[in-house]
Every structure is written in C-alpha cells, then in structure tokens.
Amino acid sequence: MDTATRELIQKYINDNIDSFHTNRVARLKSLRLKDVLEKKNPYLFRAKNINSATDLVNAVLDARLSSSEEGMFGGFLEGLAIYVAEITCGGRKSAANGIDIELTKNNIRYLIAVKSGKNWGNSGQHAKLKDNFRTAVRILRQDRHVGEIQTTLGICYGRFTTINTGEFLHVGGQSFWHLISDDPNLYIDLIEPLGYKAEEHDKFFKEEIANLYNRCIREFTNDFCESSGAINWPRLVKFVSGNLPQYDNPN
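User: That's the sequence. What structure does it adopt?
Assistant: Structure tokens below.
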C-alpha cells in the first residue's frame, strides 16, 4: 500500500474515532439504572451472595457497558472496512439489504457483509444474512453480464481458517483486511492510529463513568435498600418480575 493511501486511512481513523468516544460518553449520560435492572436476574445475584449495593450495581453496569462498547466499536470497524475497500480496491457501499461492500477482484464480484467479531448475532440473524445473500445474488443474476459472484462474510478480527460454507465465504482477521485492501499487513497497521488521543479520551471517560456509578449506587440504595443499608430483595424481585395487578407497586 502506498504512503498516500495509508495516510488517508489514518486520517479516517483519527477523524472518526472521536465519534466513538463521544458516543461512549453520551451513552453513559443517558443510561438509567432501572432500564438496566429490569433486564437482570435478581435470583442470580442473591444466589451469588451479592449483598452490597455497590457490588450489585457495579456488576450490572459493567456487563451493560461492555456489551454497549463492543457494539459501538463494531460499528466503527465496519465503517472503516467500507472506507478501506473504497480507496484501495475500488469497492463501494452496497445498496443491497444487509450487504456492506461490493467489490470486484480477479473478475469475481464480492458481496461482503461485515461483522466485527466471529461471535455475532443469533440464529435468526444468521438466517437473515443468508436470505440477504440469496436476494442480492438473484437480483444481480438478472444481468447476464455480471459474471462470477462470491457472497462473503467478513469478520474484522479473529484467527480462524477461511472456509467456503457452500453458501458464502467466511473470512476474518488478516485475511479479511487483505481481501479488501490487497495489503497483508494492514490488519497490524490499523492498531497504531486507533490510539489517537486515547489517553485524553480515557481520562474524560473515567470521570463520567465515576459519576454514573455514583449516581446509580445512590439511586439503587434509595429505591431498593432498607434504612439499615441492606438490600430489600423482595422489592427488587417485584420490580423485575411483578406483573400481576396486585403486585404493580414495587414496595
């Protein structure tokens, strides 16, 4: 890859990583404890002998934030992959439903759905992806000049062997970035610019996350703890699971 192209990729990362960090903070500020609590299993917390409001809230928020960040950063990586394909291999953002990139290499038309990591989605989403591939191929086949089509699931990170499932090519990690850029080392070169202003962003994020945890611990203590400080487990269970009319009041 030439220096000019590499600099364009670095600029894209620098320009867009700010949005990732901004969205991280925005999610923190908009998060409400009860919205998270109502999706958690109070029986599990009780069985694990979690009797500290701080420990319980930390466990709930840690899981939520980890999942949220993985999703947000996955979106960033998928956008980066589309950009890389556009400026290195003449690829383009696909207009087909569920397909992210279309590019032609060695007379093969690749239809690529990009996912961040290998463990993405549920069985319904996997089935939907296959339907999207079939639909896209059927439409393209209406043009008798289209040539060979290769439906492809591209995974941004992970060390696994490229396979053809019979329905699509499954490619990830170094092989995926090589496919869309023709550069076998790009997957390594991406790591350095991702640290752009990372220390500055992390300092601000830690301040905001401390505020969130403090706010949620106070809220949990006020709503689900006795005056003694002990967790009122029946009240918490009623909040999460009470759905008969006489149990609408969590108290």
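DSSP finds nine helices and six strands in the chain.
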